[in-house]
Amino acid sequence: MKSIPITLIEGDGIGPEIASVMKKVAQATQLSLVFEPALAGQAALEAYAELLPDRTLKQIKQNKVALKGPLTTPVGKGFRSINVLLRKTLKLFANVRPVRSIPQISPYQGVDLVIMRENTEDLYAGIEHEIAPGVVESIKVITRVASTRIAQYAFEYAMKNGRKRVTSIHKANIMKLSDGLFLECARKVSKAYPKIQYDELIVDNACMQLVSKPQQFDVLLLENLYGDIVSDLAAGLVGGLGLVPGANIGKKCAIFESVHGSAPDIAGQGKANPTAMILTFAMMLEYLGKGKVAKQVEAAVFKTLANKRFRTPDLGGRASTEELGEAVVRAL
Ligand code: ATP
Hints:
Strand 8, helix 6 and strand 9 (197-202) form a beta-alpha-beta unit. The chain has eleven helices and twelve strands. The protein has a ten-stranded mixed beta sheet with strand order 2-1-3-12-11-4-5-10-8-9, sandwiched between helices. The chain has a two-stranded antiparallel sheet with strand order 6-7. By secondary structure, it is α/β, with parallel strands linked by helices. It folds into two domains: 1-96 and 241-332, Isopropylmalate Dehydrogenase (3-Layer(aba) Sandwich), CATH 3.40.718; 112-237, Isopropylmalate Dehydrogenase (3-Layer(aba) Sandwich), CATH 3.40.718. The protein has helices at 15-28, 42-48, 54-63, 82-89, 144-160, 178-190, 203-212, 224-238, 275-287, 291-305, 321-331; strands spanning 4-9, 33-37, 65-68, 94-100, 112-118, 122-132, 135-141, 165-170, 197-202, 219-222, 247-249, 254-257. Adenosine-5'-triphosphate binds next to loops.
């Protein structure tokens, strides 16, 4: 079998712990995957005195697929978010985050939605300045090109994955120009997909609806900032950040990464939940055309989590990162 090279950025904080577990699960699938290590973030700063070395970018472009743990951006002036920089540099325009209930664990059962977040603009453009002492501006950039591109991706994704509905989430009643343009593009794109139901919800109402009846939602289409916030809210509905996988997709390459950050509060303690990273690995397998094995990995995770003995502290259990991982490997 031809081997598939994958760039692996283990990341900061809990990154190396959960990556180590993920690699054992990958090995148990018996697929010919070769993880090629690369550095970014804090680890790259220490090794090469830069947050995003050229060699890392080159390697991702060459392999076209990367798996990434969380990266910490040093707090302070002069450092832009390394995650944002990666997504922008590699033009990874779609951030896809499937949020599903896990039997016996999730506080809300029957949730099965996908967050489709625009990944390249909005307030994340990072254009901020002080116009007078005590007065700052942060500029929200929304373009027709990026809004149309993410809407098209959302509808195509819905068609390919048997989804029935796309809901745009916005605040166009207040931000008439920016969110208005985002909606205008989504509406236009929706016309080409008559089989998919299209509707819209104002973001505050969407949050309320999500916590009252999340089962009603299917694909949620959002700008960058709303997408970030609603992702964490949705993660909470199904049991927390330790459970939700994600992918950053571009035309030429893709980086798979969980929704959670580097969790410095529990790093190095063997307490991190590796589930999100393992499910992110499964998403990557799906992308690589290994859907059958991806389903087997997911099934092994769900089977393992059904047993209270293998749950990590974030799920109310006492298992370590490794114990959960080893149980998934056995289940596979
Ligand atoms: P970022 O800004 O990078 O998203 P953050 O500090 O906002 O980072 P996280 O690092 O994701 O957020 O941490 C938020 C909370 O969730 C922390 O209390 C952390 O311990 C917890 N958490 C995040 N990921 C996991 C995980 N995999 N397992 C257990 N707990 C986690």
